[in-house]
Amino acid sequence: MSDNIKNGEVLIRVENLSKSFGDNLVLDDISMEIKKGDVISVIGPSGCGKSTFIRSLNLLEEPTGGSIFFEGTDITERGVDIRQIREKIGMVFQQFNLFDNMTVKKNIMLAPVKLKLMTKEQAQTRAMELLETVGLADKADNYPSQLSGGQKQRVAIARSLAMEPDVMLFDEPTSALDPEMVGEVLNIMKDLATKGMTMVVVTHEMGFAREVSTRTIFIDGGKIQEDDVPEKVFTDPKNERLRDFLKSVL
Amino acid sequence: MKKWKKFSLFFILTAALTGLFTTTVSAVSPFILLGGKEGDLQPEILQRLYDNFVKDDRWKYLVEGLGRTLLITVVAMIIGTLIGFLLAIIRVAHDKNGSVPVLNVIARLYITIIRGTPVMIQLLIIYFVIFASVDIDKMLVAIIAFGLNSAAYVSETVRSGIMSIDNGQFEAAKSLGLGFPAAMIHIILPQAFKNILPALGNELIALLKETSISGYIGLMDLTRGGDYIRSVTYEAFLPLIAVALIYLVIVILLSAGVSKLEKRLKKNER
Asked: How far apart are the first and last CA of chain B?
């Protein structure tokens, strides 16, 4: 599927997306597009709905209204096999969520083998390649409990990449890390961005948002308040809430 | 190796202590109860041991009873574990995805009824009501009754184990395109099992001892075997203490096995 979509073409289209938990409206009529090759950073104050937004993109949160098209398919429609869609959408979590009962290598191999995308041997080779790229080949046979936070997150990224996704979602990937480990994870993400991976990153790392992303989205009150190139968002914020937010974080 | 040494030391100590206790009590009690003289003690106790366990091959009641007790326990445990896991998975699938609503109601009803009534009544109902008109092996009845009973308890234990696993593990599996069954089998259940192993061991021990009511449907299990000896020798003390000791030893062996398994599973993490 992905090969049909060229750089700059729409990969994900969000139309009038809304989500409420009970009476609490968290996402309020959001519409936007993600094009192939985009590196989008999503910023905003805590509780603004940015995590709910990114988690809606692979339906970890069920939207209460609107549609999400992935490579042309409306994934919110009944009868769509969301599992097949999720194979193409990688996700990296704040809490890493490595499978604690298996080694690093098995973590990476599990999904491609069980979903019959690769043989065990292929998955093993691929896992070692990916661990090489995230600099953790020597940890292949360790269990997650033996890794530092930064190492865990690098493995989590490798695990997502093993599925060869068309887009990667990062939900505050460095927020649970000790400060000295933030850099190693951001570097891997930077590499991915340079290699052309389409990425959506919910982050508090304003430096990363500014330098690496091609677009920055500011969400507040469940709405996209600003959506522009990072230079504009950071140096010439039009929205007043954005100005307040930037003042408080920079 | 070191752990085994520790365990055997513990085992020998327990056995020695219970042995000491029993012989002391049995040596003194006739003295107190029958008002016998001190000199009579030695031959008296030997005579009683002979009467209760050797004469007419009475030890066979205990050995054969133990065999039945163990067979009921092991097969009931297997049935209970299989059905218990199934019930737990149904309930979790319902809680997480809202799927299988009908099965969920059935599972909840089952657990409520089984936990809400005494296991002895369940045993009697299965034997005297459900299989009333059928000529069925009492062993089979006991296995079914205890297996079905255990399943309800195992299922709640398993469910609590599954719920103790962070939802992030589920979400990570989902995000990779894995379905509920694959996530359960490869990720959630292996972790949950490790967490609930002590509780499952507990359930197994409870099950073993619960089977002692099998005599109520006329099954010659270990308890009934000891009780039978009592009824022919008119002596309660020795046969009942012997039965108690046998249960104790089995339970000690079971808990040792469980903690060994626990340690082995734990090693996988580090």
From this structure: 19
